[in-house]
C-alpha cells in the first residue's frame, strides 16, 4: 500500500500551530505565576494586623479570579490558533450561563452579600456577634469562619452554625464596642479546658454585674497553656472599658474568687 506524503505547506502549517500552542501555554503559565507572586507580595505589604483574619479569604478569592481569567484567555487563544470558530460556542455558553444564573439566584445572593460583609468589615473571625436571619431566627456566638457564601458561628452550646450570607438580615457585633480592657490569668489545670473557661467567664460576668457595668461584654479565651498551667485572656468591652475595669477591680476580685475555690494559689498577671 502506497501512501501519499503530506504536502509541504500542510506540514509547515501543522508545525506552526504546534509551535504557537506551546508558546501560548508557556506565556499563560508565566503570566499566572508572575501575577500570583504579585498578589502574595501585595497582601503581605498592604494588609495591617487588624485585617489579618481576612487575608486567607481575600487571597484565595484573588487567586481564583486570576486563574479563571488566565484559563479563559488561554482557551480562546488556543482556539484562535487552531482556527476554531468560537461564535456558536459563545452563544451556547451565554444561554447556559443565563439558565444557571436563573436557577442559582440564592447562591448569587449569598456571594454578593458575603462580598459586602468582607469589604465593609461588619464582623471578623473571633468577633462575638448576634445574627438575625431573614426568617427571624437569632444566632448568638463567636464567628469561627467567614467566606463569600457562608458564615460559621460557634454558639454558646458549642455547636457550629453555618448561615448562608444572603439569609443574614441584621448583624449586632458585641466585639466592636469602643473600648477594650483586658488582662491574662494563669491558673493550674483543674479539669476540662472548656469547663474552666466557662467558669472564669461566669465569675467575671457576675463581678461586672455587681459593679453596675450594664453594657459590659466579657469574653474569656484560652490564650496559652503548658503541661501544668492554663493561661486565660479576659476581655471586657464597654463604652468606658478602662474606667469600668478600674472601677470594678475585676482582676483582683476574679483572682479572689478563684483562690476561694482553690484554683489559684498565685495572682492574676496584668499585661
SSE ordering: HHHHEEEEEEHEEHH
Q: Note the overall shape.
A: elongated
Average residue-wise pLDDT:
78
Overall tally of domains: 3
Into which percentage range does the β-strand content fall? 15-25%
Please give the largest β-sheet. Answer: 5 strands, antiparallel
Number of strands: 8
Spatial arrangement of strands, main beta sheet: 4-3-2-1-5
Task: Point out poorly predicted stretches.
Answer: 267-271
CATH top level class name of the largest domain: Mainly Alpha
Condensed summary:
The protein has 271 residues and is an alpha+beta fold. 51% of the residues lie in helices and 23% in strands.
Written account of the structure:
- The longest helix has 39 residues, at 8-46.
- The protein starts with 7 loop residues before the first helix and ends in an 11-residue tail after the last helix.
- The radius of gyration is 29 Å and the shape is elongated.
- Helix 1 (8-46) packs antiparallel against helix 2 (52-81) and helix 5 (193-210) crosses helix 7.
- The protein has helices spanning 8-46, 52-81, 87-103, 105-120, 193-210, 241-248, 250-260; strands at residues 128-133, 138-146, 150-155, 160-164, 168-173, 179-188, 217-225, 229-238.
- A hairpin with a 4-residue loop joins strand 3 and strand 4.
- It has seven helices and eight strands; from the N terminus they run H-H-H-H-E-E-E-E-E-E-H-E-E-H-H.
- It folds into three domains: 8-103, Helix Hairpins (Orthogonal Bundle), CATH 1.10.287; 123-175, SH3 type barrels (Roll); 177-260, Alpha-Beta Plaits, CATH 3.30.70.
- Helices cover 51% and strands 23% of the residues.
- The strands form two sheets. Strands 4-3-2-1-5 form a five-stranded antiparallel sheet. Strands 6-8-7 form a three-stranded antiparallel sheet, covered by helices on one side.
- It has 271 residues and is of the alpha+beta class.
Amino acid at each position: 500500500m502506497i501512501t501519499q506524503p503530506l504536502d509541504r505547506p500542510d506540514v509547515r502549517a501543522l508545525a506552526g500551530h504546534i509551535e504557537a500552542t506551546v508558546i501560548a501555554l508557556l506565556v499563560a503559565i508565566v503570566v499566572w505565576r508572575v501575577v500570583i507572586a504579585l498578589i502574595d507580595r501585595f497582601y503581605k505589604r498592604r494588609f495591617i494586623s487588624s485585617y489579618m483574619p481576612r487575608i486567607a479569604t481575600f487571597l484565595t478569592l484573588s487567586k481564583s479570579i486570576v486563574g479563571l481569567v488566565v484559563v479563559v484567555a488561554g482557551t480562546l487563544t488556543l482556539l484562535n490558533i487552531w482556527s476554531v470558530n468560537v461564535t456558536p460556542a459563545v452563544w451556547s455558553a451565554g444561554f447556559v450561563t443565563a439558565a444557571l444564573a436563573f436557577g442559582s439566584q440564592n447562591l448569587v445572593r449569598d456571594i454578593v452579600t458575603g462580598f459586602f460583609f468582607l469589604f465593609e468589615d461588619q464582623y471578623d473571625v473571633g468577633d462575638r456577634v448576634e445574627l438575625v436571619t431573614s426568617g427571624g431566627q437569632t444566632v448568638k456566638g463567636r464567628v469561627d469562619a467567614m467566606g463569600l457564601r457562608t458564615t460559621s458561628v460557634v454558639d454558646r452550646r458549642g455547636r457550629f452554625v453555618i448561615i448562608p450570607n444572603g439569609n443574614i438580615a441584621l448583624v449586632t457585633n458585641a466585639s466592636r464596642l469602643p473600648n477594650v480592657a483586658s488582662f491574662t490569668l494563669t491558673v493550674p489545670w483543674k479539669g476540662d479546658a472548656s469547663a474552666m473557661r466557662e467558669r472564669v467567664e461566669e465569675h467575671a460576668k457576675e463581678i461586672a454585674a455587681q459593679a453596675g457595668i450594664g453594657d459590659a461584654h466579657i469574653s474569656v479565651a484560652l490564650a496559652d497553656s503548658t503541661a501544668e498551667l492554663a493561661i486565660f485572656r479576659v476581655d471586657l468591652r464597654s463604652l468606658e472599658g478602662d474606667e469600668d475595669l478600674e472601677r470594678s477591680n475585676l482582676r483582683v476580685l476574679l483572682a479572689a474568687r478563684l483562690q476561694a475555690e482553690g484554683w489559684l494559689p498565685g495572682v492574676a498577671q496584668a499585661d
